[in-house]
Amino acid sequence: MSQEKITRTEQEWKSLLTPEQFRVTRGGGTEPPFSGKYYNHKEKGTYLCSNCGNGLFTSDSKYDSGSGWPSFFEPLSPESVSTREDRSHGMTRVEVLCARCDAHLGHLFPDGPPPTGMRYCINSVALDFKPDQPPRPGTN
Ligand code: FE
Predict the structure, then answer these.
(1) CA–centroid distance, residue 126 to ligand 1 (Å)
(2) What angle do CA 61, 5, 128 make, to 5 degrees?
(3) Which residues partner with 86 through β-bridges?
(4) Is residue 13 part of a domain?
């Protein structure tokens, strides 16, 4: 499944996003740990890109890493996110981006739990949460 890319100018993103969303997702920024709305969020559902609505992660792969950022051991699908090397701040890290709109989401570390051993360390401000539909009355 291929993603249709979304491209906008910096000015367009600036007009669409909150200042904190813009700083993090379009400027490669980081929200302070334990400050975001999803690091301790445990509802069942899907996490979408806050910039474009692309499905990125599900609650099934979310776990408590203790880092203060929402952490997932795998993306919704391999096509949901892209990665690239990030050599900023005197470190070599793997940056995680939305595969559809190239929003900066966070970083990927090889210290996650089974089954993947990976930790997608994601800024809450890069995410929107869509809860699973509750079962309709009378259907179960
Ligand atoms: Fe996106």
Answers:
(1) 8
(2) 40
(3) 93
(4) no
**Which pTM does this prediction carry?**
0.92
**Residues annotated as catalytic (active site), given as ranges:** 121
- Nearest C-alpha neighbor of 26 from the set 48, 46, 51, 1: 51
Residues 97-110 have pLDDT tens digits of 999 999 999 999 99
In this structure, the number of other CB atoms found within 10 A of the CB of residue 16 comes to 13
Residue 18 forms part of a structural domain: no
96: confidence class by pLDDT, cuts 50, 70, 90: very high
Q: 138 alpha carbon to ligand 1 midpoint, in Å?
A: 37
Q: Over the chain, what is the mean pLDDT?
A: 95
User: Above 80 in pLDDT, residue 30?
Assistant: yes
Q: Quote the CA–CA distance of 70 and 24 in Å, as a whole number.
A: 14
The two tokens of residue 36 are 């975001």
Distance between Cα 55 and ligand 1 center (Å): 8
Q: Could you give the CA distance from residue 83 to residue 3 in angstroms, rounded to a whole number?
A: 15
- The gap from C-alpha 119 to its chain's centroid, in whole angstroms, comes to 11
103 falls within a domain: yes
Domains contained in the chain, number? 1
